Amino acid sequence: xxxxxxxxxxRKAVQEVAKELVLLYAKRQEQKGYAYSPDTVWQQxxxxxxxxxxxxxxxxxxxxxxxDMESPSPMDRLLCGDVGFGKTEVALRAAMKCILDGKxxxxxxxxxxxxxxxxxxxxxxxxxxxxxxxxxxxxxTPAQIKKTLFDLQSGKxxxxxxxxxxxxxEIHFKDLGLLIVDEEQRFGVTHKERLKELSRGVDVLxxxxxxxxxTL
Length: 216
What we know:
Helices cover 50% and strands 14% of the residues. The radius of gyration is 18 Å and the shape is globular. With 216 residues, it is α/β, with parallel strands linked by helices. The chain is built from eight helices and six strands, in the order αααβαβαβαββαβα. Strands 1-6-5-2-4-3 form a six-stranded parallel β-sheet, sandwiched between helices. The protein starts with a helix and ends with a helix.
């Protein structure tokens, strides 16, 4: 009897989640997103400055993501791949496309260590381009955070990397165009609610090495 009760409870919970997801995606489909411009010379230069040869999978994913971004519907794409398979490079190319159209990019990660890694990778990749990058994590002082919040709202920051601090109510973007979420399954329910608010009409790219929770 206990097993039967548990099965019923789980089935009901799954149905609720499924219903919620269907409503969320239906709303996103109704919303008009932003249609990005075709690739520019700067996009090409950025991609050519990548020091490794791209894999076929990387190239295919990049093309599909760009097609989504150029469409007027908000993108909602899950990019799966083991650690070290180049998901970050694909995400940064999408970020560059967004920034070149004058919009802001947020990269949301579950840990401070990961925020620092992404921040350093982005700084290295965009080093020769006029892109302003900042990071929000517990490594920052209150004064640094205050300045970052001001710069984010005034549009001085093109790309912000951050932990759940990015989801706080006092965070305001001037014009958020792309939200990149790394390891979404490691964020709690309240974080996900705030994510939904943040991502209305915005293109969303989720990166995951463990896609099971999302794809069930």
